[in-house]
Amino acid sequence: MLERRTIVLADGSVRSYFALPPDYQDFPTPIRPLDIPDEFGFSPGTLSACLGLLLAAAAS
Known about the structure:
two-stranded antiparallel sheet
């Protein structure tokens, strides 16, 4: 994600530095781990909600 850039100083020495690319704001928001579905197509938040509904139904 970072670009390596080089600058030549007035005394002739060369320095390298790392910088964000010019289009860094165009990167999409990374997927949070809770939003990634498992092998069955459910995310952990979905499974927790389903389990809560099942437990509530069993208790009544």
